[in-house]
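Researcher: Can you fold this with P-hydroxybenzoic acid in place?
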Amino acid sequence: MKANWRQLFAAATLAAFSAGAGAQAVKIGVVLTYTGVGAEFGQQVDRGMQIFMKLNPGAFGSCKVEIVKRDGKNPGGADSKTAAQELITQEKVDIITGVIYSSNAIAIEPVITAAKKPFLIMNAGTAWITNLSPYIARVSFSMWHAGHAVGETAANTLKAKTAVVGFTDYPPGKDSLVAFKTAFEKAGGKVIDEIPMGGPGAVPDFTPFFQRAKDKKPDVFFVFVPAGDHAVGVMRTYNALGMKQAGVRLIGPGDITQDTKLQTMGDDAVGLLTVHHYNADLGNTPNRRFVDAWKKEFGPASTPDFMGVQGYDGMAAIAHAARAVNCNMADADKVMAALKGWKFDDSPRGPISIDPATRDIVMNEYVSEVVKSGGRLVQKNIGVINAVKDMCKELKVDRCGK
Ligand code: PHB
């Protein structure tokens, strides 16, 4: 039974969870990077969706669920746009979801707006994406959730006076820079250099960028990269250049301490301070259940990370909307109305909701420090900021104010 269920979800492009003959189908179109540089991210979100279905078999009530998957392939935008077009025009899906890279979500937006299809983002974090269309909601994060909080923490808790910012040069990187800088400078700090560090499509050699940061002798070095192999490259370069010993503290959103990569980061990661909405070490009951189910399904050495939990919560949101419209998803306005204000207390990341005014997520942000415990690197939670909204929209910064 287990093998059949997994094969159905993982291998087939179409998965159907039947709630009985004659039940109305909710057709979910998923666009994720299943191959290429973002393949591990696509797998994380996909597995999170699977674990939700496994742990919550009755979540969709009487609705039959069909899942159609397409590979977004890369951060370039064009392949994801084509995938969304096919899902809508050929597969006739009711909702588009998934999407790792902001560039891909931005490319998909005109398609879903023209077709009037709800689009529930499960990762892409550039704050203003949700301002592009009334049919977009987000269950992941905005770069401002963590970026702004790291800026405040650096100034107020770490007492940093100067910072250099290094960022992957595409929308969420630029967004992270502005988020961090806004909060850090408001709290009395000064950003003394801003370093674009290549695109998301391939991991660059970070050495010249990090050397430039080191030479500036800042108190903190704030880095945003799109997790995964980029994050491994960040730690490797930080270690190789002896930046910790030179007194430059590395800080950033939790993308740079992704759970799946943490154990490869070496002891120089100890002391790394991040703010994020999830790490697998969170001790709450829904998270223990989630992590246990994950390890049982995908192996004891595997771990969910923030993208996994976003897939889990995304399915919970879609299930709620499907039930709210009695499985009839034809009216996009009704689906969006159901998503607005949705509250979920059983998320592994703590209580979450969708802000009805912005269609963006409200959630806790956890301040964590990497420590060594029992021979492993662990994210020790040293603070929590409750019910954080997207500060870009709260402060109405640039495109977030539209
Ligand atoms: C994004 O493209 O929005 C993105 C990708 C990976 C991350 C965070 C944001 O870790």
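Model: Folded with P-hydroxybenzoic acid in place. Confidence is low (pLDDT under 50) at residues 1-13.
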